[in-house]
Amino acid sequence: MKKLSTLILPLALISTSALAVVDVEMKVSKLPKKVSKEQQEISAQLASSNCAYVVNPVMDIRQNKDAISWKVNATGVQQWFNAVHQDVITPLIPTASKDIVVEVTPKLNMLYTYNEQLNINGMAVSTVDYSINGKPAGQYHVRGFNSDTNWANGDNEYVDSAEHAAQHLITRILKKLPEICGKAG
User: Full-prediction pTM beyond 0.70?
Assistant: First the structure.
């Protein structure tokens, strides 16, 4: 009987440690050149449109604000969106006063990652409410996606994929602004 307990105890310890969830903080890193260039093009479109824009920070309304995969929690997601709003979005939005004001309020519904063969895929899903001249005008849904090669199966790779999906989400929210302005005019 002693031999059986000697075998079972180490196996139980190994199996519970394999199920442990790791917390990794999301940190704003330098935007990839492709994303930065695309956002600069969007900024030029916004400047030449007939509308002024107010883009509110993304609000994290997920029920589980940390989990992004079965093994990794991403902490600081709301702080990440606040920093991106201040450092990336705000400088892109023209400040000129115009007769038509489009305001968007994005809400993060989902942010998750998953493995698919040798890749880690990230998905960010948002519902965006918008108003025109202060009157509610509609709502639309936006998805951001990212797929990266899973080199080391490291916890940071999951968070990086989630960050890139969130960056893609923000770019798609900004791309939609001229279309909303066109509906207002």
Answer: yes
